[in-house]
Amino acid sequence: MSGLYTTILFQPIFNLLVWLHNIIPGHNIGLAIIALTVLVKLILWPITLKSLKSQKALQEIQPKMEELKRKYPNKEDKEKLAKEMMELYSKEKVNPLSSCLPLLIQLPVFIALYQSLSRGLQSSGFDLLYPFISNPGTISTSMFGIIDLASPNVMLAVLAAISQFFQARMMITRQQPKKVPGSKDEQALASMNKSMVYAMPVVTLIIGLRFPGGLTLYWLTMNLLTILQQWLTLGRKTAVSEVSEEKK
Question: Subcellular location, in the record's words (predicted)?
Answer without folding.
Answer: Cell membrane; Membrane
